Automatic annotation (TrEMBL):
PROSITE patterns: ARGINASE_1, ARGINASE_2. Gene3D superfamilies: Ureohydrolase domain (3.40.800.10). The keyword Protease does not apply. SUPFAM superfamilies: Arginase/deacetylase. One of its GO terms (biological process) is putrescine biosynthetic process from arginine, via agmatine. Pfam families: Arginase (PF00491). Keywords: Hydrolase, Manganese, Metal-binding. One of its GO terms (molecular function) is metal ion binding. InterPro entries: Ureohydrolase (IPR006035), Ureohydrolase_dom_sf (IPR023696), Ureohydrolase_Mn_BS (IPR020855). This is Formiminoglutamase. The lineage of its organism: unclassified sequences, metagenomes, ecological metagenomes. It comes from mine drainage metagenome.
Amino acid sequence: SNRSCYYLGDVITKDESLEELQIQLADKVCELLGHDIIPIVLGGGHEVARGSHLGVIKANQSDTTLTNLAIVNFDAHFDLRKSKVASSGTPFSQIEQDRRGQNLDFSYFVLGVSEPSNTQALFERAAELNCSYILDFDFDSITNHQFIEMVEPFDAIHLSIDLDVLQASVMPAVSAPASYGVTLFSLERLIRALLATKKVRLVELAELNPTYDIDNHGAKIASRLIHTIV
């Protein structure tokens, strides 16, 4: 590949304010998007998604190719909880509010959803927001064509990968390992299909937790996914 890849360091704040971290991340993402660079954000908790997406919203003020955008989240969880305190369970609920505040549509696709790991209220919330989702046990049967048809109407894609979507035997390095999970083969296949559309403008890989890793196995899987993306 002729692509260049640069490491741009960490986002750090002295007072440990999550919102301050998200704003700093948003500024960096916005700057990179302004130079037509695809940011790859590494986490940490999935709350990084909100910071990433604030950068998209900011960049959209001068780049209207980001207006008609789909969020594609490979995740065992909807992450649509409503709470006054932000956490790794709230980012896409916050993003929906952020986009609505700017009169932007919220088009959210979640693939690999674990039914036992989401409450009935979250399924109802997803329905209320017209989210499209595919359950973990249906994941392997999605064809590339079906998947790409879902995102065909959109000009840009925010790709979010929560590593806990993978089977626990493949990805132990997460705080909520999947009892069922999706296969690495199918995840890579769909990521490659999505990248082939040339619509992906932002990527994040979230929830890697070295505390739970076994012989760096999870870290190696995460690095393989990044290699697939770049």
